[in-house]
Amino acid sequence: MNDQRILDRLVELGIELPPPPAPVAAYLPCVVHGSLAFVAGQIAMSDGVVLHPGALGDQVSLDEGVDAARRAALQALSALRETLGGSFERLERILQVTVFVASTSGFVEHPKVANGASELLAEILGETGRHARGAVGVSSLPLGAPVELLMTAAVGAA
């Protein structure tokens, strides 16, 4: 992909790519092996603070969950870009996104929350951003986050 085209698209959409996330435990934000890049779980953070803490169906609204999924996807893109040498040039395609949603047992809108990330990736990257996906409900996530996102991408040789 053309790095400048993606950066220009972000500007067109009025979206700022956040700085690459720092790990909050013993892991790497992104690992490339062969033609695959695996982005570690991203919880939506802003200025070091969890965005919309709590569970969907209780303290967190559907709109807040969608917002958290969008932010987590942006952070995943930032981690991916950093690992690929500060550019999207090697990015070939987003393959899979898994979105974990902290929720009450009665909450069933997990796909709508995950759409926040999926739709954003397609908006920014076009067809390259369309991916396979899983949306999974869980009882809790690290730091009280409402959403955690994992991403796998196909990348070209360095």
How would you explain this protein's 3D organization?
The protein has 158 residues and is of the alpha+beta class. The protein has a single domain (3-21, 31-155), classed as 2-Layer Sandwich (60s Ribosomal Protein L30, Chain: A). It is 31% helix and 28% strand. The protein is built from three helices and seven strands; from the N terminus they run αββββαβαββ. The chain has helices spanning 3-13, 62-83, 110-125, and strands at 30-33, 36-43, 45-46, 49-50, 91-102, 132-138, 147-155. The strands form two sheets. It has a five-stranded mixed β-sheet, with helices on one face. It has a two-stranded antiparallel ribbon with strand order 3-4. Helix 2 packs across helix 3. It starts with a helix and ends with a strand. The model has no long low-confidence stretch (mean pLDDT 96).
Concise structural overview:
With 158 residues, the chain is an alpha+beta fold.
Cα radius of gyration in angstroms: 15 Å
Q: What is the name of the CATH architecture?
A: 2-Layer Sandwich
CATH superfamily: RutC-like
CATH class: Alpha Beta
Strand content: 25-35%
User: Within the largest sheet, what's the order of strands?
Assistant: 1-2-7-5-6
Mean pLDDT: 96
Number of domains: 1
Low-confidence stretches: none
- Specify the structural class: alpha+beta
Give helix and strand order, one letter per element, not per position.
HEEEEHEHEE
CATH topology: 60s Ribosomal Protein L30, Chain: A
Helices, by number, come to 3
Sketch the major β-sheet.
5 strands, mixed
